Amino acid sequence: MNNLDSFYHKIIETEGVFTMKNANTTIGFVRFNEEGEIEYIFVNPMFRKKGLAKKMLKLVKDKTKKKIIFQKPISPLGSKLLKSINKI
Fold first, then answer.
1. pTM (two decimals)
2. Inter-CA distances, 55 with 4, 83, Å
3. What CA–CA distances, in Å, run from 29 to 12, 34, 43?
4. 46: which DSSP letter?
5. Residue 69 pLDDT class (50, 70, 90 cuts)
6. Which among 9, 12, 20, 23 is least buried, having the fewest CB atoms inside 10 angstroms?
7. Start-to-end Cα distance in the chain
8. Which one-letter DSSP state was computed for residue 16?
9. Are 36 and 58 in contact (CB under 8 A)?
10. CA-to-CA distance for 15 and 2, rounded, in angstroms?
């Protein structure tokens, strides 16, 4: 599955968190503050490489109306994501 629209999911918004779920599991989530700073982002390994992190970051940008700012990544995978996002 390379197309994000090819599987059903819903997005749940709570204070400072967008969570993406399907009927069986949490697909991913992003935690952010009102300044647009990304505190944590996670995508379930089964759903990676489908553009979900980028979709969640767009939700944050649309919600906060701010430029996205990333805290320093705590994992090598986070560093890799940050490099790919900065290429856009």
1. 0.75
2. 9, 16
3. 9, 16, 7
4. G
5. confident
6. 23
7. 22
8. T
9. no
10. 30
Q: Which long-range contacts (CB under 8 A, 24 or more apart) does 26-34 make?
A: 27/52, 28/52, 28/53, 28/56, 29/56, 30/56, 30/57, 30/59, 30/60, 32/60, 32/63, 32/64, 34/64, 34/66
Structural domain of 81: 4-86
Which residue is listed with tokens 């059903």? 8
Ordered strands of the 69-70 beta sheet = 10-14, 17-21, 26-32, 37-43, 69-70
Distance CA 33, CA 65 (A): 12
Structure tokens at 18: 């967008």
| Domains in the chain, number | 1
Question: Which residues does 14 contact at the CB level (< 8 Å), separation at least 6?
Answer: none
Q: What is the CATH number of the domain that holds 23?
A: 3.40.630.30
Q: Provide the mean pLDDT of the chain.
A: 83
